[in-house]
UniProtKB/TrEMBL annotation:
Organism expressing this protein natively: Tieghemiomyces parasiticus
Top-level taxonomic group: Eukaryota
EC number from the UniProt entry: 2.7.1.82
GO biological process terms on file: phosphatidylethanolamine biosynthetic process
The family this protein is said to belong to: Belongs to the choline/ethanolamine kinase family.
Pfam families linked to this entry: Choline_kinase
Main EC class the enzyme belongs to: transferase
Gene Ontology cellular component list: cytoplasm
Protein name: ethanolamine kinase
PANTHER family: CHOLINE/ETHANOALAMINE KINASE, ETHANOLAMINE KINASE
InterPro entries attached to this UniProt entry: Kinase-like_dom_sf (IPR011009)
Pathway: Phospholipid metabolism; phosphatidylethanolamine biosynthesis; phosphatidylethanolamine from ethanolamine: step 1/3
CDD domains on file: ETNK_euk
Length: 370
């Protein structure tokens, strides 16, 4: 089981990390076009004692970045996941950081082990349970478990400088967008109609100005820098009814970041990929979630002398989170514009980006006035 008690502090130093077992490196590629067969080949190379006839392979199709296969050995009842990176996704994701994240979190019991690396992906342990549906994010019991688990994550310390990555990442992604859409000869899957649609939907100069405007506004907030998941959508939350726990999967975007961003981004995901922002949690739902989070955070710091959480503390966090909620739209909007240039996954990234930017503009003045 992956469930842990709430701990007073969870720290992994560089020395401790260097002592972790390194994943086995496999000199092979898992093709998106030959996904199941290549995934099986990777698993058999990694676990030579396994037999092909004992394996069940299933493609998980919820993701919009990578290709994912679950492989279960019927004899041992061990399940692993084989993730083949999305095309050119290294432009968006620091794959070395991802490996560090998994190794640290695994050592702390917050995720399964990393078994192996291949040329374009990873093989790692499967988290038992059911993927949470977007409609369950507002369920009081599930939301309490998520709040408690995220408070636990936010106490993790990983190697490297403890600085927020939000605006560093946004500037990097904006640079990738400019490189592609300002130069049609750049590598990518874009064509003339795609370029025309891009220039119809987006004004890069205006978006950069909004990013800088928001940065100034958010830097006035004293949001703590914590180890953040940064992609806590419903599909990345697993509920295990056996021990009544939630665990988080997919750690490729995890980094140090602002607490307000990690929580605000989670609240944005109540809308799902359809971006139905009528589902954004109302104040009462948020207040209950935030109170659960603060109580778990306080218990983790001092379980014997945890003072009650006050209304003022909840209200302060409510304001922080809702202002950083705006940043999640800029973040995933830029991400989607980069994806639109090269991803081979069937998803309307440009349309998704436009919906994120529209919600940003719709709520900006209201939320910054809190």
């Amino acid at each position: 089981m992956l469930t842990l008690p709430i701990l007073p502090s969870i720290v992994m130093t560089h020395a401790a990390t260097s002592g972790l077992p390194a994943p086995k490196v496999l000199p092979l590629t898992v093709s998106h076009q030959n996904l199941l067969a290549d995934a099986q080949a990777a698993v058999l190379k990694l676990f030579p004692e396994w037999q092909a006839e004992d394996l069940d392979l299933f493609q998980c199709k919820d993701g919009i970045t990578n290709k994912l296969v679950r492989c279960t050995n019927r004899k041992t009842n061990l399940a692993v996941l084989i993730r083949a990176y999305g095309k050119n996704s290294e432009l968006l994701i620091d794959r070395n950081q991802e490996v560090t994240n998994i190794r640290v979190l695994s050592q702390l019991g917050l995720c399964p082990p990393l078994y192996g690396k291949f040329n374009n992906g990873l093989v790692y342990g499967y988290v038992p349970g059911e993927v949470v549906h977007v409609s369950q994010l507002s369920d009081p019991h599930i939301s309490r478990l998520v709040a408690h688990r995220l408070a636990e994550w936010h106490r993790v310390t990983i190697p490297g400088a403890k600085t927020a990555k939000l605006f560093v990442t946004l500037n990097q992604w904006l640079g990738e967008v400019r490189a592609v859409y300002a130069n049609p000869s750049t590598a990518g899957t874009h064509d003339d109609p795609k370029l025309a649609r891009f220039h119809t939907l987006f004004d890069l100069e205006a978006l950069e100005q909004e990013m800088n405007f928001l940065r100034v506004a958010l830097e006035r907030i004293n949001s703590p820098v914590v180890f953040s998941h940064n992609d806590l959508l419903s599909a990345n939350v697993i509920y295990n009814a056996v021990d009544d726990s939630t665990n988080f999967i997919d750690h490729e975007y995890a980094s140090y970041n602002y607490r307000g961003f990690d929580i605000g981004n989670h609240f944005a995901e109540f809308a799902g990929f359809d971006c139905d922002y009528s589902l954004y949690p109302d104040r009462a739902t948020q207040v209950e979630w935030l109170r659960n989070y603060l109580e778990a955070e306080r218990r983790g710091k001092d379980s014997d002398q945890a003072a009650p959480v006050t209304e003022a503390e909840v209200d302060e966090l409510y304001q922080e989170v809702n202002k950083f909620y705006l940043a999640s739209h800029i973040y995933w909007g830029f991400w989607a514009m980069v994806q639109a240039s090269f991803s081979d996954i069937d998803f309307d990234y440009m349309g998704y980006a436009r919906m994120r930017f529209d919600e940003y503009h719709r709520r900006r003045d209201e939320l910054l006035a809190l």
